[in-house]
Specification:
Helix 7 packs antiparallel against helix 8, helix 8 packs antiparallel against helix 9 and helix 9 crosses helix 13. This protein is an all-alpha fold and about 325 residues long. It is globular. The chain has a domain of about 220 residues. Helices cover about 80% and strands about 0% of the residues.
Length: about 325
């Protein structure tokens, strides 16, 4: 057991050391030039993409972009107070659920218009409406077996990951140009960006308040995934058996949030954990940058790209209309 742990540690250490170095460098540059640390982490990481498939780096990069990211997000629960929920309002949360349903349905409709099968529409719809690549993989796990399914999932995963990364850079600039405050920007980021890593990155590139609100809104979207999986299972009689549960880090986030609001935790402890969480997120975004291969753009077929882009625009425009109607 000890030997296997040492072997695992050795596998992870090379790539993890690389992403930590990028994170530290990004923080230094951010302080020097007064620019978002998340953006530096992403761009410097992209420059090291050639190391992504190196044997000595791959495991550490995967660990940073997976486990470290999820732990960073879970720890954000200790920053969540009832005042943050109240600052959003309960009706906007209900409206968010409606927005997710509409986007999911729009993806299915686009799939029909472009001559794709219903299964692809469900994959694309869930990935954009809920949580990007994670949703695509979860939905694929319950769809009936099909020899072409792997190709569909691959295209959706590549497409939504690219769109999420682009959105992480563009959306904060867009929302600021539209005069959105920190609460509005956090809400929009959580409601419109696909993958959770990019949601957290975009939110914290604006401010800590935007980051926590974006995370909360994104968590609400992700909690709808089991519901969608059940709908898919009943839509396709030959669906594969799969355990429908919430990801562990969301349950941990909820647990930490409950602890924060029940117990009077010392402020210095909360600040310390928050600092750890932010560093985890910077490290994870650095790893995400290394995993970002710009050549992947060419691998997504035209019709798949159009469907995903139109869904993304539909979600963005609908959210902007929604936030103006609700006057958050």
């Amino acid at each position: 057991m000890l030997l296997s742990f040492k072997e695992k540690l050795k596998e992870v250490s090379g790539g993890f050391a690389l992403v930590v170095l990028i994170a530290i460098s990004s923080n230094f540059l951010s302080n020097q030039y007064n620019a978002p640390v998340i953006l530096f982490a992403l761009l410097i990481g992209i420059a090291f993409n050639f190391l992504n498939n190196e044997k000595n780096c791959k495991e550490g990069i995967e660990f940073a972009s997976g486990t470290i990211l999820r732990m960073g997000v879970a720890l954000l629960g200790l920053k969540l107070t009832l005042s943050e929920i109240e600052s959003i309002g309960y009706f906007p949360i209900v409206a968010l659920i409606i927005l997710v349903i509409l986007t999911f349905g729009f993806g299915t409709l686009l799939s029909y218009i472009f001559g794709r099968k219903l299964a692809f529409g469900l994959l694309a719809g869930a990935s954009v409406a809920i949580c990007g690549a994670s949703a695509a993989l979860a939905i694929a796990s319950v769809l009936p077996y099909n020899k072409n399914r792997t190709k569909d999932v691959l295209f959706v995963v590549i497409g939504v990951t690219i769109l999420s990364t682009v959105s992480m850079i563009i959306y904060p600039i867009l929302f600021k140009s539209l005069g959105m405050n920190e609460i509005e920007s956090g809400y929009l980021i959580g409601a419109t960006i696909h993958d959770i890593a990019q949601v957290v990155g975009a939110g914290y590139s604006i401010s800590e308040e935007s980051g926590i609100i974006a995370t909360v809104i994104k968590m609400i979207r992700v909690t709808l995934l089991p519901v969608v999986m059940i709908i898919v299972m009943y839509t396709f009689p030959g669906s594969q058996n799969s355990k429908v549960t919430l990801p562990w880090f969301i349950l941990l986030f909820i647990f930490f949030a409950i602890v924060r609001n029940i117990f009077n935790l010392p402020e210095f402890f909360i600040d310390y954990i928050n600092e750890i969480s932010i560093w985890f997120i910077i490290i994870a975004i650095s790893a995400l940058g290394i995993k970002t291969n710009l050549q992947e753009f060419s691998k997504v077929s035209f019709s798949y790209s159009v469907i995903l882009v139109l869904e993304t625009l539909f979600l963005l425009i609908s959210a902007l209309v929604l936030i103006n109607v609700l006057d958050i």
